[in-house]
Design a protein that fits this description.
Layout (H helix, E strand, L loop, with lengths): L2 H11 L2 H4 L4 E5 L3 E6 L14 H20 L5 E10 L8 E10 L3 E10 L5 E11 L2
Length: 135
Amino acid sequence: MTSEDAQAILREYFAPWIQRLGLVVEEVGERHAVLRLPWSDDLAREGGGLCGQAMMAAADTATVVAVSAARGGFVPMTTVQQSTTFQRPVVGKDVLVQVRLTKLGRTLAFSEITLTADGAEEPVAQASTVYAVLG
């Protein structure tokens, strides 16, 4: 799967509000994906930091891209569990969302996600997800 194929999945299978996040597929591989969540003042909370809900939605969405890449194309799936830990604020910077599939079974997929402000080394958040693969 190419980055363009993965970008098409975002356009075709996700709700309009997810599409308005402006996620861009930077890289996709056999068991990983990297998406960019562009900075937007519309996603900032009181105080100017990027809201956690936007980061959680980006992590969840990026996992779908990674699982789809591993399966060779989009398959129906649903989130079973997501846990996110926020470590530092993001102000005025894009966020890179790096997904690594830690286990891909026939019906379940597990991933670890690191969210990092563009140009920074330390993560702003860490997440893990479990997905039920339905198709």
